[in-house]
């Protein structure tokens, strides 16, 4: 049983870029954010990333078992370094996501972590939402709502996460609860860094376009961007979510371009996916607050600002940590689950009614 009032929660996130585990502490009562605590990153080795990659798109089999072991080991290593936490929110690694088909799968056993770390662990955050007709993603929006209050926003703002995939949350901070109709709207915008990463790896043996330096030297092929925006995903009304590799074919579209033009064009595709998505938001946000690795890509940020009327800022400009925001989100959601509060609602995932998704595993006694 979780003690009453504010608790210290530790969240852990292993994102779609497969680069490692982010872990961060926040102090919260499940509604208000009181303070932020320590944070750490545990990178995956090249071998570990290869094992995780081999599990993508799989729903069963040996590749999944091996990948789950990598996830569990990496999480135990990083999480045991945190002292004095009351509970842990463990997202795991998404390997497959078909909310309207086979479901959603995050690997890593929270029960095993609870036993190893001797703490209650909340995990499997997405399945309950999918079972009730939701997309199971994005789940950070309820945390974005709390953050909008924390930074003292008085008008609608948007949080944009640029990871492997992009997702946006439009927040009206005037509401009292995130599940109230009108408070939130969220969805995955489209691919974010993944296409440029894939290009850099295939052509230059690099993991990403550091600071967007290569894209900055190229010219955008507008026809390719226009063709990309014809994809049916962009015509679907939100809430909606993506599987990591749903836009994998995008690299073929730039096959005949130079490295710099290809990087510039793929970067523009990610930007225009966000711009296209903005039309679904109830109002233009006053600020677009950007988290995730893409905020470090100067070319991407410049293109975003050029395509938008509102101010585009990294979340650091309002005092937040853009690298740890998703790990903090799962710490926050863990407390909500433990307290029986909802973690998603019709306007964030399309679920039929507000739901608190997540399994709580407690360490064995004795
Ligand atoms: N300095 C940089 N310059 C350009 N791009 C960068 C930089 N730093 C990080 N990135 C990009 O950000 C990506 C990692 O972003 P992030 O850690 O937010 O992803 P993730 O959390 O794994 O993904 P998701 O949010 O989709 O689960 C890298 O793969 C890279 O493409
Ligand atoms: C199924 C899944 O793991 N989706 C991730 C992914 O990475 C970004 C985007 O796609 C988002 O929908 C989600 O993660 C964040 C943390 C979320 O649920 O809010």
Can you walk through the features of this model?
- It is a single chain.
- With 366 residues, the chain is α/β, with parallel strands linked by helices.
- It folds into 2 domains: 7-134 and 327-339 and 357-361, ATPase, nucleotide binding domain (Nucleotidyltransferase, domain 5, 2-Layer Sandwich); 152-318, ATPase, nucleotide binding domain (Nucleotidyltransferase, domain 5, 2-Layer Sandwich).
- 34% of the residues lie in helices and 22% in strands.
- It has helices spanning 46-55, 62-79, 110-117, 127-131, 141-150, 194-204, 213-216, 222-228, 250-253, 259-278, 298-307, 325-338, 346-349; strands spanning 7-14, 20-28, 33-43, 87-98, 103-107, 121-123, 157-162, 165-171, 184-191, 287-291, 311-314, 359-361.
- Strands 1, 2, 3, 4, 5, 6 and 12 form a 7-stranded mixed beta sheet that branches. The chain has a 5-stranded mixed beta sheet with strand order 9-8-7-10-11, sandwiched between helices.
- A hairpin with a 4-residue loop joins strand 4 and strand 5.
- It is globular, with a radius of gyration of 19 Å.
- The model has no long low-confidence stretch (mean pLDDT 96).
- It binds adenosine-5'-triphosphate and the ligand CC(=O)N[C@H]1[C@@H]2OC[C@@H](O2)[C@@H](O)[C@@H]1O[C@H](C)C(=O)O.
Number of DSSP helices? 13
How much of the sequence is in beta strands? 15-25%
CATH superfamily heading of the largest domain? ATPase, nucleotide binding domain
Provide the gyration radius in Å.
19 Å
Oligomeric category: single chain
| CATH topology description of the largest domain | Nucleotidyltransferase, domain 5
Distinct ligands:
adenosine-5'-triphosphate, ligand AH0
Report how far apart the termini are. 16 Å
The major sheet is characterized as: 7 strands, mixed
Helix proportion: 25-40%
Number of extended strands = 12
Order of helices and strands: EEEHHEEHEHHEEEHHHHHEHEHHE
Total domain count: 2
Mean of the pLDDT scores? 96
Label the structural class: alpha/beta
CATH class membership of the largest domain: Alpha Beta
Using the alpha-carbon principal axes, give the shape. Answer: globular
> Any low-confidence stretches, pLDDT <50, length ≥5?
none
Task: Based on the coordinates given, report the CATH architecture of the largest domain.
Answer: 2-Layer Sandwich
